[in-house]
Amino acid sequence: VRAVLAERRVPISSDADVVAARHEGRVLAGRLPFSRTDLTLVTTAISEVARNIIEHAGSGEIAVRVVQDGERTGVEVVAEDHGPGIPDPALALRDGWSSGGGLGLGLPGCRRLMAEFHLDTEVGRGTLVTMRKWCEA
Ligand SMILES: Nc1ncnc2c1ncn2[C@@H]1O[C@H](COP(=O)(O)OP(=O)(O)O)[C@@H](O)[C@H]1O
Ligand SMILES: [Mg+2]
Description:
With about 140 residues, the chain is an alpha+beta fold. The chain has helices at about 15-30, 35-55, 90, 105-115; strands spanning about 5-10, 60-70, 70-80, 115-120, 125-135.
């Protein structure tokens, strides 16, 4: 990603923070010519990674950015925590797999909803999820 045109950061530790992160995502992505459907997909993905921070890591942060890469502009969502990390990331990306009582659709859902999805995690260090969705020029 070549240029960051705007950024909002939201610390995540409570349900109210999930709402705030969704809101920031909608405001920033709303500056771009996304369809209403795409805006909803972006805010849904933000909710899922924010809930994962609360449920599986305790606290963390979400950054939402308007980014430009050549002719493309888009939205980038980065969810970061210093929680326990994920021992088996491939398993965590499988539909329906949850270490707790969850539906296990959050991470695989985000991967489907966003054009780019990267999961970077290490046990004992934390988890970084980077997702992007582009508006073609
Ligand atoms: N930020 C995180 N920190 C630690 N583990 C996580 C995190 N996000 C996801 N996980 C792990 O990946 C699994 C799958 O996540 P997800 O698909 O959102 O399902 P769910 O949250 O319903 O369990 C979780 O059950 C959890 O074990
Ligand atoms: Mg989840």
